[in-house]
Write a structure and sequence with these properties.
Blueprint lengths: L4 E4 L3 E2 L7 H15 L6 E2 L2 H4 L9 H8 L3 E10 L2 E10 L4 E11 L3 H20 L16 H14 L4 H17 L4 H16 L5 H18 L4 H13 L4 H14 L4 H12 L4 H14 L4 H13 L3 H14 L4 H13 L3 H10 L7 H14 L3 H14 L6 H13 L3 H13 L4 H5 L14 H8 L19 H18 L9 H7 L4 H7 L11
Parallel strand pairs: 1-3, 1-4, 2-4
Antiparallel strand pairs: 4-5, 5-6
Helix pairs in contact: 1-4, 1-5, 5-6, 5-7, 6-7, 7-8, 8-9, 9-10, 10-11, 11-12, 11-13, 12-13, 13-14, 13-15, 14-15, 15-17, 16-17, 17-18, 17-19, 18-19, 19-20, 24-25
Length: 535
């Protein structure tokens, strides 16, 4: 466990009205997002922190499962137009509270309160961990409309329940928020997320859902291209609707540049490199995602998918089985489970498994394609003819992306390589994004022996961009002359004023006294001085 790690547990609602739970969750998430902007600080994501909501688990056990050194916990009380927020920091290893504070503020100043709290927490963490740089503000004002903000928090609260009924209710609330403030970026992101969910789960037809999601993503992008969530959504849009790997990679890198602690972007980066067989780079980002969000079922599924693509079929099978134990409606896990069984030669088990799956779990063309592959890999030539003929028929539709993908796999496994590449040309023209997933899949490994493989791989995927953001060597925050000047000034101030006698002394207040930026004073404390002072 590294020292620069923190988990923010859900703030407890102590208001008389239990309906204010949404507000407490929203404030907690805002603080998580604010602290996650600090590059040198590892902040556990919302999903894993909220895993412990309403559970009585010792803080030491929580910290061990999340791999963090510090826990932030607190409570919120809403009363009319006032809000009281309490927060405390705990050393998890010995369960010692080393800092706490209470704020009584007007609700209308909620963004300023969040920024004040986040900055103070960041300062206290820096005093514990040592130097890292903190922006002057960690939270910016989302909207002038408190009602729009409240609507968006209620919407997010419902969306995070991850079921179609609540997601539809969330959409209505996000739309209300936008009617109050047409410039509220977070509500546009929320609508894009919601329609993406409805499309993925087939509650809405895929084309309709993605069109709506694309509309709201573009709107958010026009309003705030410097938002990490917007860049992540643009990456998904580029990949799944434009079949543009290069753009997807570019947007994901931008998202991570804006917010390195963004687990969804780390997952997506791992995914992008997984499907290009760049497994070392994929694993780098996967491990970052796991360190930020260790209890997320989505992250754990990505781990299973990585292991499948890496040829660890037994391990991947165990992992997807665990995912399905937690969530029996995890549709991608069912698909990867079938793929693992196919690669392990258990084709009859796949056919039996498919026959038992409810219709709402697996798409018809997905089931048809896997059936074709199972028969082919089992050398059931006669049994495969009818489903393959049906697959050809389904693949005639320009929007039947699953059928496009499985027909390609069928042609590869029939070793009809000319036909496979001809079909690939046709589907590239149709922007059939599922082919990006299929081209390097273990079920298409025969393709690698064909001399055309690399040419088409370069056509499908953007090459030449390293997944690791370029890191420029940082210059000193202060040059030598300024360092010497401020060091002398600091030493003189401490000797004359004895600020260490003030129990409320902080690095930020000391920086104000000697007229230096807190980041510079923090950095200065790491520089060897003639008379070394530990700040």
């Amino acid at each position: 466990m590294t020292e620069n790690t923190i988990a923010v547990l859900p703030f407890i609602n102590i208001s008389p009205d239990p309906e204010n739970e949404y507000f407490c969750d929203g404030i907690t998430e805002e603080i998580i997002n604010a602290l996650a902007q600090i590059n040198q600080l590892k902040v556990t994501s919302r999903t894993s922190s909220f895993f412990f909501k309403n559970q009585t688990v010792p803080l030491q056990e929580i910290a061990q499962k999340l791999g963090v050194a510090i826990i932030l916990e607190g409570s919120i009380r809403l009363s009319g137009k006032m809000v009281r927020i309490t927060a405390q920091l705990v050393h998890a290893a010995d369960d010692v509270h080393f800092w706490s504070a209470t704020w009584d503020r007007k609700l209308e100043n909620i963004f300023e309160i969040q920024d004040e709290i986040s900055l103070l927490i960041a300062d206290k963490l820096r005093e514990q961990f040592g130097h890292f740089e903190i922006n002057d503000h960690l939270i910016k004002k989302q909207t002038e409309s408190l009602d729009a903000y409240a609507c968006s928090l209620k919407a997010k609260y419902l969306f995070n329940k991850w079921n179609p009924l609540d997601v539809k209710a969330a959409i209505q609330l996000y739309e209300e928020a936008i009617s109050m403030d047409p410039l509220h970026v977070e509500s546009y992101i929320g609508l894009a997320d919601a329609y993406g969910f409805l499309g993925t789960t087939e509650v809405l037809p895929g084309v309709e859902a993605w069109e709506k999601a694309a509309f709201y993503i573009q709107k958010a992008y026009e309003l705030d291209a410097g938002n990490a969530g917007v860049q992540y959504q643009m990456a998904n849009l580029s990949f799944f609707t434009e079949c543009d790997f290069q753009k997807a990679l570019s947007h994901t890198l931008k998202s991570l540049e804006l917010k390195p602690n963004y687990p969804e972007s780390q997952q997506f980066m791992a995914f992008l490199y997984t499907i290009t067989d760049e497994m070392d780079k994929a694993n780098y980002h996967l491990q970052l995602a796991l360190s930020i969000d260790p209890l997320s079922q989505e992250t754990l599924f990505f781990k299973a998918y990585f292991d499948y693509r890496n040829g660890d079929f037994h391990e991947a099978l165990e992992e997807v089985n665990r995912c399905l134990d937690k969530n029996p409606k995890n549709i991608p896990a069912y698909i990867v489970r079938c793929y693992c069984l196919l690669k392990l030669g258990k084709t009859k088990a796949v056919l039996e498994y498919l026959s038992q799956l409810p219709e709402d779990i697996i798409l018809p063309n997905e089931k048809l394609g896997i059936t074709c592959l199972a028969h082919l890999l089992n050398n059931d030539t006669e049994q495969s003819r009818q489903p393959i003929a049906q697959l050809y028929q389904e693949a005639e539709s320009p929007m039947a992306f699953q059928a496009h993908s499985y027909l390609f796999l069928v042609l590869v496994n029939l070793k009809q390589m000319d036909e496979a590449f001809a079909w690939l040309d046709k589907t590239i023209a149709m922007k059939s994004s599922v082919l990006l997933l299929t081209y390097t899949d273990p079920l298409a490994r025969n393709l690698k022996n064909d001399p055309r493989f690399k040419t088409y791989k370069n056509k499908l995927f953007f090459k030449g961009q390293n997944s690791f953001p370029k890191t420029e060597k940082k210059s000193m925050l202060l040059d030598k002359e300024t360092t010497d000047t401020f060091s002398s000034k600091l030493l003189h101030y401490i000797q004359e004023e004895e600020p260490f006698l003030n129990p409320n002394l902080s690095l930020r207040s000391l920086a104000g006294q000697i007229q230096i930026h807190p980041n510079q004073l923090s950095w200065l404390s790491t520089v060897p001085l003639k008379s070394k002072i530990v700040l």
